[in-house]
Write a structure and sequence with these properties.
Blueprint: E1 2-5, E2 12-16, H1 21-40, H2 43-51, H3 54-72, H4 76-88, H5 90-101, E3 104-107, E4 111-119, E5 122-126, H6 134-145, E6 149-153, H7 159-170, E7 178-180, H8 185-193, E8 198-202, H9 205-216, E9 221-225, E10 230-234, H10 240-252, E11 262-268, H11 272-285, H12 304-319, E12 323-329, E13 335-341, E14 358-364, H13 367-374, E15 382-386, H14 390-398, E16 404-407, E17 426-427, H15 432-436, E18 440-448, H16 452-455
Parallel strand pairs: 5-6, 5-8, 6-7, 8-9, 10-11, 10-15, 11-14, 13-14, 15-16
Antiparallel strand pairs: 1-2, 3-4, 4-18, 9-17, 12-13
Helix pairs in contact: 1-8, 2-5, 3-4, 3-7, 5-6, 10-11
């Protein structure tokens, strides 16, 4: 049995029977059988069906939010907010996806071309535990609207909330258009090896690499959102309070278990003392505890293994010269927000993804040095630059080898922007017009343009 426990209390949340390997094969077969009739439904009608699950999702968002907190630990207000956001935004998301997938017409003097966005076939969506509902929505919904049937394999650490979310969709969809596989990497590997057409995966860089290798034989389409080691560059003219507030919020929210958490901070030496002091003060004010308790701002690590990974990085950094300014082991699966100074790029904590509530602060003298340090990473998911001179801050942002950079804000873009990583943080991307189209096969159909004479 798959046992899911509350990381804050150790209590059993629920048990589920994992999908057998034979069951995985049957799921793929049923998805293939259902895909042709699903694809035959017009795009707008597919969107209407999917969007019709919104009211049920909204009604259940409170209960789903509680499951999120009990399964992976985030504060209840954030968990309910995640579930409610996915439900409330479903209709708008469907409209955006429809606009992206409508046929396009091109023509020149001789040729008229129609570009179609056709289904790929059977899609597998393997989703993470840190945003267990939102990441389901961001991958399953565009895959369905593109005319694919979908097998969702949520993280074994947060299966219950994802399953409840999926039930809302399955209640309004034809049979086998959406199925949920229960299990861990055993079921994930079986799905990747199965005769499917698209894999949308969110998770670690190492797991993404294994998926690429396994999918290579069948040349399966991939959308991989992988890890990050996001930098924050604080320019000498930055608003110190605003930059420190962002650093604390983006380093510690969700206990640092966010793909675009700020994990490396480069602050100009002229303001480094004031900035560091402000971050420490904010870190010490945060309330760490059970996400179900009122007032909790930072929940636990998702499990003991993740906590040990975080503490090991901190211990090694300390042993090689870093200073722990505040925070550390909070007992159980908890880690109190940590601020580290005296770090260098020779330390693993400045090179490898931490995924915990740790802010690493390093000073620099010249902006070129800050850019070099920020780019000294195999990752390139998100980042931020803070400075009062927004034009200069934008110029620095453009020099960073990163998929998404915020200037005096987080890395998320305006409505319709893709969620995209550079370097080893992503392969393909999702969201926005270009992201939605990655769940479809572009087909180009061309014919001669009628001459004026033949048109008469």
């Amino acid at each position: 049995m798959l046992r899911i426990t509350n990381p804050a209390t150790g209590d059993l949340v629920g048990e589920l029977e994992p999908t057998s390997l034979e069951g995985i094969g049957l799921m793929v077969h049923r998805a293939r059988q259902a895909q042709r009739s699903w694809a035959a439904i017009p795009l707008e009608e597919r969107a209407r069906l999917v969007a019709s699950a919104g009211p049920a999702m909204k009604e259940r968002s409170g209960a789903i939010g509680e499951l999120i907190t009990r399964e992976m630990g985030k504060p209840i207000a954030e968990a309910k907010g995640e579930a409610n956001y996915a439900a409330s935004g479903l209709e708008e998301a469907c409209a955006e996806i429809v606009a992206a997938l409508r046929p396009e017409r091109l023509e020149d003097e001789r040729t008229v071309t129609t570009m179609l966005y056709a289904p790929l076939g059977v899609a597998v969506c393997i989703t993470p535990w840190n945003f267990p509902v939102l990441m389901c929505s961001d991958t399953v919904v565009p895959a369905l609207l593109a005319g694919n049937t979908v097998i969702l394999k949520p993280s074994e650490l947060s299966t219950l909330c994802a399953l409840e979310w999926a039930k809302c969709l399955m209640a309004v969809l034809p049979p086998d258009v959406l199925q949920v596989a229960i299990g861990d990497e055993v079921q994930g590997k079986a799905l990747v090896a199965a005769p499917i057409d698209l894999i949308a995966f969110t998770g670690s860089r190492s797991a993404g690499r294994h998926i690429m290798q396994a999918a290579a034989g069948g040349l399966k389409r991939l959308i991989l959102e992988l890890g990050g080691k996001d930098p924050l560059v604080v320019l000498p003219d930055a608003d110190v309070d605003a930059a420190a507030a962002f650093a604390a919020r983006n380093s510690f929210r969700n206990a640092g278990q966010v793909c675009v958490s700020t994990e490396r901070i480069y602050v100009h030496e002229s303001i480094a003392p004031a900035f560091t002091k402000a971050v420490i003060e904010r870190a010490q004010q945060l309330v760490v505890g059970d996400g179900m308790q009122a007032g909790t701002q930072i929940g636990p690590m998702v499990n003991a293994r993740q906590k040990q990974h975080v503490l090991a990085q901190i211990s090694l950094a300390k042993a090689t010269g870093a200073t722990v300014e505040c925070g550390g082991d909070g007992g159980g699966n908890f880690v109190k927000p940590v601020v580290l100074t005296g770090v260098t790029h020779e330390m693993p904590i400045m090179q490898e993804e931490t995924f915990g509530p740790v802010a690493c602060i390093m000073s620099y003298r010249e902006i070129d040095e800050a850019v070099r340090l920020a780019n000294d990473s195999p990752y390139g998911l998100g980042g931020a630059v803070f400075g009062r001179d927004e034009e200069r801050a934008r110029e620095v942002a453009e020099r960073l080898h990163i998929g998404m950079v915020g200037v005096n804000q987080g890395c998320g873009g305006a409505s319709g922007s893709p969620w995209v990583g550079a370097r080893q943080s992503g392969y393909g991307h999702h969201s926005g017009t270009s992201g939605h189209r990655q769940f479809a096969q572009v087909r180009v159909i061309s014919r001669p343009k009628p001459s004026p004479a033949s048109a008469v």
